[in-house]
Amino acid sequence: MLDKLSLRTVLIVPFVLQIVAAVGLVGYLSFRNGQKAVNNLATQLMSEVSLRVEQNLQVYLTTPHQINQSKLDAVKLGLLKMENLSDWEKYLWRQVQLYPYINFTSVGNKKGDYRTGEKLSNGSLMINLSGKSTGFDFYSYNTNNTGDRTTVATVVKNFDIREHPSYQNAANVGQPTWSSVYISFLEPTLILSALEPVYDNNQLQGVLISALRLDHIGRFLNSLKIGKTGQAFIIEKNGTLLATSTVEQPFRTKDNNKKELFKAEESIDPSTQATAKYVAVRFQQLKEIQSSYLLNFEIDGKRQFVNILPFQDGKGLDWLIVVVVPEADFTEQIDANTRMTIWLCLAALAIAVVIGIQTSRWVTNPILRLNTAAKNIAKGEWDTTVESERSDELGELAKSFNSMAQQLQQSFATLEHRVQERTAELAVAKDKAEVANQAKSAFLANMSHELRSPLNAILGFSQLMTRSQTLSREHQENLSIISSSGEHLLTLINNVLDLSKIESGRTTLNPKKFDLYRLLHDLDDMFQIKADDKHLQLVFDRSPDLPQYVETDELKLRQILINLLNNALKFTEYGGVSVRASKHSTSQNQQKKSVNNSVSKTYKHTEDEASNGINFPHLTMSENASYKTQNDGSASASSFFIHFEVEDTGPGIAANELDNLFEAFVQTQAGKDSQEGTGLGLPISRKFVELMGGEMSVNSTVGKGTNFKFDIQVLAVDAADIESKKPTRHVIALEPNQHPYRILIVDDKPLNRQLLIKLLNPLGFELKEATNGQEAIDIWDSWEPHLIWMDMRMPVMDGYEATQYIKGTIKGQATAIIALTASVLEEERAVILSAGCDAFMRKPFREADIFDAMHKHIGVRYIYEDPGQANSSAVKERDREMTAADFLKLPESLVADLKLAILKVDMDFIESAIDQIRLKDTVTAAAIANCIENFEYDKVLKLISQASSHE
After folding, report:
1. How far is 650 from 574, CA to CA, in rounded Å?
2. 811 and 840 in contact (C-beta within 8 Å)?
3. Element holding 621 (H helix, E strand)
4. How far apart are CA 646 and CA 331, in angstroms?
5. 274 phi and psi, to 5 degrees?
6. Nearest residue to 459 via CA among 490, 495, 496
7. Exposure class string for 721-736: b at 16+ Cβ within 10 A, else e
8. CA distances from 437 to 91, 279, 392, 506 (A)
9. SS3 of 332, please?
């Protein structure tokens, strides 16, 4: 990476980085030390504040109970009576003056009489009373200097001390306790009353009350110095705010002038509100807080220190003291130091850059002059020299450069002459290669046309003959052989053309959304019979996380798996073949980046016994040879890989054959011995895998088996995106009430014309033929067909010219022209469509494609064969009555297996035996299966016994 940087950068950057790193490290360490100091200071400050508040509360809350005790002593000494409260008025009036934090001191008896001595915040002394004498209304009187009542200040209706929560609470507890916090009748302040029940012979005589003003606690909290902007507040464990160091009152006045308490989370002070919410979230239940906590949190991104201290006095109080201090109160100086450090860093950086630039100029300017001179020489200015008066290393370099320039000038003249000669030779070779490539393309195109045209007739007439209901079973089998052989020949032709397109770089992907599970199931069905014929086990295994619906080139994936399965089953004589598929986020072969032909000295061999008794080896590591192909393409973020393995227990591949395994037309020794195949399957498969973003590798052990592995890149899709396959239906007639359709068939090959005539004539189409483009134009001009099936390669006039002529007229626009061609080159499709053809169809074609194209382009409607009718003959054969003669035609071993399976009542064994019989006689197998489904086991056993007796 350094070789891409300029010399000036290399000289400046390290020098600058050293200075910045040193200054930055010092600043960072200073900042960290400051942070530690802040944390220690915050802890000490908040602990000290919390302890001061706790100590003050302990002193403050002890006083009311001491007052109640003095009143109780007076009662016990007989100085005051609970029955006559009139004597209490001046006693209470004098007592309230002795304690500055007491709001009032009072007494209530069991008759409902109540007396209070109260001191307001403005210093006024009041005597309050209620009871039977006042009609149980609360009267508050102003007093003179001697404690006598003067005028009424306030009246509160319906006040019975016995119904007051404080009185009832003291009576229920039966010992000194506290009332709930409430708001005073006379003043805007919170009141907390100390309660003392008075008993005589265990009978409640009344309650002594001493009330504290909690606003004195708020003033004390406000007097504390808690940093610069810190605060403290006291809450009950239900979250109710009792006192705060801020100016906020711990109660609120509603619209009806009614005052009520509120929770700290509803405070108008942002810091109090945020802290209360944090504590509530942090502890969920405030009652669980039984010890001190030192925490920190953030308000609007600013760190806050919080100390929570529980307070209990043993008489029922259970409060929380909360102290919160912003970190910024302690870090102001640290922040100033940090800013200074940043300015120092910037200044040091600027100085370092200036010094570095000057130094780099002194070093690099001579080098830049050398670079400029070298570029001039590269442009052909051979007389360029570098002037330098320096005697250091750069001066010596300039002298050497001038000497080199002179030598280059001398060599260039000779080299230029040689290059001109070589360029002329390469131009001639290029022309020859282009001519050869054009000849190859022309040869492949002609070969495709000449081979696919007769194949079109073979496969087409085979399709027509399969529709016949009069063919014997032997003829149907012969027809099936003809059709499969034609398909095999078509596959060979396609393989050669595929290889040609791969070599010329014309192969492209055609992604399609499809059901991967169905593809694997179809391949299982396709190759199961072949495996059963060779008594091999064929296993398809997919991982649980393998997606069912994917998008990739389905046809190429199918061809890859078919090629590998064909090879595996062809060369395997015992054991079986396993196909495994699994999902991976990356290619499983990416770690192998080179061809590896190595043989290991150890192997591990495990066997899994199949249900049919065949031991199927799975090779994990073996004495093997590995060959690896690679693809440098990388997967996109939205795709994944599917990993496939096709493993067999065949003869294996020798290590010296792996080098040429993926070369075209090359076969292994086992392939040569079998005298089958062309040697194209594996090269095409490997190229397809690489085209699909994956890689292919092979592990093989001679005498043990072979394992082909490959990955392909796919996209997962939804089931709704998959096109459902329509069942194949045979056309048997045209729908009624359609006008006659005129169809012109143009082809120079009589067999091809005859095939279309045989296919279309029974349905009632009006047909005419033409052997070349000129005849087609003449017939079209006079007959005006609705549709023309146009072959593109013909003598006299080809299909391209005829199509252009017809489509060049106004009348010709009403005629649909569908091209029929044996070419498989994609570029020819574009040429055909540009000539004016409405559609494009390759030979050999399927009859369903012919009918679908005519429906699409001229609207022909058909009557299709009823699938139930198509299978009626098979149903009749299935339901026909079996006889003992049917079993006489079967091999004795198959009949014995079936009998044994029925006697054991082994349904899997029975199904396997019927499948073996189906390979010999499908009709008898269907009849047996029908009996088994209807539980007619005795009938089958009886017929087997009759067949045995006839023998």
Report:
1. 7
2. no
3. strand 615-621
4. 69
5. -65, -40
6. 490
7. ebeeeeeeebbeebee
8. 127, 82, 61, 13
9. helix
Q: Do 624 and 701 meet the contact criterion of CB atoms below 8 Å apart?
A: yes
Tell me how many degrees the CA angle 826-828-829 measures, rounded to the nearest 5: 70
C-alpha closest to that of 287 among 310, 316, 305: 310
How far, CA to CA in Å, does 70 sit from each of 64, 170, 219? 10, 17, 28
Residues 600 and 892: their CA atoms lie apart, in Å, by 48
Query: Using an 8 Å Cβ cutoff, are 914 and 869 in contact?
Result: no
DSSP letters, 528-588, are HHHHHHTT-EEEEEE-TT--SEEEE-HHHHHHHHHHHHHHHHHH--SSEEEEEEEEESS-T
3-state secondary structure at position 221: helix
As a whole number of angstroms, the distance between CA 42 and CA 45 comes to 5
141 strand-pairing partners: 127, 152
| Residue type (1 letter), 177 | T
Token reading at 872: 């009626």
DSSP code, position 77: T
For residues 360 and 370, give the distance between their C-alpha atoms in angstroms, rounded to a whole number: 15
**Are 20 and 345 contacting, i.e. CB atoms less than 8 angstroms apart?**
yes
Half-sphere exposure of 61 (CA within 13 A, CB side): 25
Residue whose entry in the numeric block shows the structure tokens 């590591």: 621
Q: Which two tokens stand for residue 138?
A: 């609360």
916 close to 925: Cβ distance less than 8 angstroms:
no
Q: Which has the closest alpha carbon to 115: 100, 95, 98? A: 95
CA–CA distance, 451 with 491 (Å, rounded to integer): 12
- Provide the pLDDT for residue 632: 42
What's the pLDDT score for residue 771?
Answer: 94
* Residues 647 and 619: beta-carbon distance below 8 Å: yes
Taking the C-alpha atoms of residue 137 and residue 139, their distance in angstroms, rounded to an integer, is: 6
Which of 595, 509, 513 minimizes the C-alpha distance to 559? Answer: 509
Cβ neighbours of residue 514 closer than 8 Å, sequence gap 6 or more: 549, 550, 551, 554, 722
Q: Residue 313: which region, alpha, beta or left (left: phi > 0; alpha: psi -120 to 50)?
A: alpha
For residue 739 the two structure tokens come to 């006008």
With residues binned 3-state (H G I as helix, E B as strand, rest as coil), the percentages for the chain, rounded to 5, are: 50, 20, 30
- The pair of three-digit structure tokens given for residue 652, joined into one six-digit string: 């294996």
Reading the block at residue 750, the tokens are 């009589």
Neighbours of 866 (CB within 10 A): 12
When mean pLDDT is compared over 40-49, 320-329, 473-482, the highest value belongs to 320-329
Does pLDDT of 909 surpass 80?
Answer: yes
848: pLDDT confidence band, cut at 50, 70 and 90? confident
Closest of 826, 17, 843 to residue 349, by C-alpha:
17
Q: What are 383's two structure tokens?
A: 């007389």
pLDDT band at 788 (very low <50, low <70, confident <90, very high): very high
**Mean pLDDT taken over the chain:** 79
